[in-house]
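Module 6 notes. Inverse folding takes a fixed backbone as the condition and produces residue identities as the prediction. Think of it as a translation problem where the source language is geometry and the target language is the twenty amino acids. Below is one complete input and output pair. Work through it position by position during the lab.
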């Protein structure tokens, strides 16, 4: 995707830094000073540093259910399984018990990723050797076939939240390599890139304002303002970001597309994407206002290479809607100044 290629790799690193506070650890400082030709190099380097950090902290454990035949009774006896396996002949019974083990999904994902990357010729030999050398620490972890479906079952809590950054980067890198090696059309690859960077862009915008400003920062669901309390089948209104200060509220929706505006025909006038305007206008109108509260909306696009970029302020039915585009090709100081200026348009 042409627009993605215009985002410096270092800025992707900074976006990751804000999204995942883990990158502020001293072990990662060197990564921020290096230059990388592509995101695969960046993700690979992060894993080569980050996985040892996890190992030094001790691999997470949890209780897992174990089923086996044994001559020692522990846990629960599975009568049906004992009969089916004819275990009594050898004076054993089938038992089910819980074991506190490292053999959990998070460790399985990391191990499967290490195996996959250590065999990939898309990764430098130096990194492959480093990753392969980490496998002995996962000898108690079962081998699983790496697949994107694995990540769908991941759940985080206070005990394993330190895994989130590394497990997410494992997915980013696996997806990148998977589509590089497949025969998928270039259009499909670009769509996948856009989806992945869109998710990171949304998380980055939220984390940036949380860290760099004193606004009240949240991303709540907005409830439909219905007259009869009937909300069955209505879509969820999940905000990307809500900024609040005094009696002012700004609802922000982050947008990352290959095209930010549309034309009906070649050479025609560029128009706003109607669905995005409808969405933010609906958010504003369903926000449960406090007395004397002023509510506005903002569509915060990532700037593309197209000539026409959103840069408008609309006043519709007494409501302000800001439509702006953030240039991710700037150095990070410029990105920071732009984001703060966009918010200040409304709050000052």
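Target side of the pair, the amino acids:
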């Amino acid at each position: 995707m042409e627009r993605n290629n215009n985002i410096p790799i270092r800025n992707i690193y900074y976006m990751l830094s804000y999204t995942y506070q883990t990158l502020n650890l001293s072990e990662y400082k060197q990564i921020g000073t290096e230059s990388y030709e592509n995101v695969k190099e960046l993700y690979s380097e992060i894993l080569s540093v980050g996985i040892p950090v996890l190992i030094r902290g001790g691999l997470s454990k949890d209780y897992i259910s174990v089923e086996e035949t044994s001559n020692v009774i522990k846990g629960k006896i599975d009568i049906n399984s004992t009969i089916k396996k004819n275990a009594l002949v050898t004076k054993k019974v089938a038992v089910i018990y819980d074991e506190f083990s490292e053999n959990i999904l998070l460790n399985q994902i990391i191990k499967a990723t290490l195996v996959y990357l250590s065999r990939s010729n898309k990764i430098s030999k130096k990194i492959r050797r480093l990753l392969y050398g980490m496998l002995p620490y996962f000898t108690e972890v079962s081998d699983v076939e790496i697949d994107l479906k694995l990540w769908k079952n991941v759940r985080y809590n206070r005990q394993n939240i330190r895994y989130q950054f590394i497990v997410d980067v494992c997915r980013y890198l696996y997806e990148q390599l998977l589509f590089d090696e497949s025969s998928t059309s270039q259009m499909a690859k670009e769509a996948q890139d856009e989806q992945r960077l869109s998710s990171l862009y949304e998380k980055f915008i939220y984390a940036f304002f949380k860290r760099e400003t004193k606004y009240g920062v949240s991303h709540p669901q907005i409830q439909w303002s219905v007259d009869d309390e009937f909300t069955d089948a209505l879509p969820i209104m999940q905000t990307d970001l809500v900024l609040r200060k005094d009696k002012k509220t700004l609802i922000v929706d982050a947008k990352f597309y290959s095209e930010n505006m549309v034309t009906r025909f070649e050479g025609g006038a560029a128009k706003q994407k109607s669905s995005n305007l409808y969405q933010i206008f609906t958010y504003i109108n369903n926000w449960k206002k406090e007395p004397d509260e002023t509510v506005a909306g903002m569509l915060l696009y990532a700037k593309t290479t197209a000539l026409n970029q959103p840069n408008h302020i609309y006043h519709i039915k007494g409501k302000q809607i800001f439509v702006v585009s953030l240039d991710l090709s700037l150095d990070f100081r410029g990105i920071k100044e732009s984001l703060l200026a966009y918010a200040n348009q409304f709050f000052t």
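Reference fact for the lab report: The chain has three domains: 2-60+105-195, 62-101, 211-347.
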